[in-house]
Amino acid sequence: MQEIFDAIKSVSIKIKNALAYEDTNYTEQTNSTGDTQLALDVRCDLLIQEELSKLSCVKQIISEEKEKPMDLNENARFIVAYDPLDGSSLVDVNLSVGSIFGIYENGICGRDLVASAYVVYGPRVELVIATDDVKLYRLNSKNEFKFIKNIKLNTKGKHNAPGGTQKCWEPKHKQMIDDIFKDGYRLRYSGGMVPDLHQILLKGGGLFSYPATSDNKKGKLRLVFEVFPFAHVFKKAGGEAIDGKNDILTLSPSHPHDTSPCFFGSLKEIERVKKVYE
Ligand code: FDP
Predict the structure, then answer these.
(1) How many angstroms is it from 193 CA to the middle of ligand 1?
(2) Is residue 118 very low, low, confident or very high in pLDDT (cuts 50, 70, 90)?
(3) Which SS3 state, helix, strand or coil, does residue 100 take?
(4) Is the beta carbon of 213 within 6 A of some atom in ligand 1?
(5) CB neighbours of 199 closer than 8 A, spacing ≥ 6?
(6) Among 31, 49, 156, 259, which is 20 to 30 Å from 83 by CA?
(7) Positive or negative torsion for Cα 252, 254, 258, 259
């Protein structure tokens, strides 16, 4: 497993440089979800593919930018699923973006996830690795990731990050979000899942929601590359992640690109969501 974390560290330095200096234009291609790909989406996907292909412990890679899983070493232990450049619609306005990694054994259900990691490319590059606990690292001037601290959520936070087009929310969801703001929570939403969840994790808690909407009946965010890895991070940090009713990590996608409504937060906020969605 350490080999995979080391590969993530070295590829994130390459991605940081690509983000800083390479072409930010769109390609003519779309990915499996129908998003038009940026040249950078394709580039970051290839950089990660190249790095993970060097590892004998990786059986298969599954990328948000690839239609199908790619087999590497038949008898190896781990499947690595990744979103190479999450929040790519923020690249042109120079906001923070990220890469997300889920490390699975045997299959790609929530219960098969054994570790997760994500990288935030902001003014600084930060890496979070979740195994039994959640550790924050920061890239220094020597291109080394230095351990900063363990991340632990409070039972209640102050931030609210409500995703999805508001006019497409269900009335009960709108009511819940209005009530949360009435209780004094502050809006924090950049439109990038990685920096938005990173902020909630580092500020001690709150709620990030991307519900089922009338335009996205099964939510927007992808289980295998985005939702399961962050569900693992939140649970190991002392919070919770649900689809409204169920623990996200009990879900089984029928396809690698399946999406799900999702709510990530500290315990109090998730309790509140459960009451509304039960
Ligand atoms: P993006 O489309 O820019 O790739 O992964 C999808 C994602 O970004 C998440 O990073 C983000 O949280 C979400 O979509 C934002 O969606 P909305 O614009 O619908 O809120």
Answers:
(1) 6
(2) very high
(3) strand
(4) no
(5) 159, 161, 188
(6) 156
(7) negative
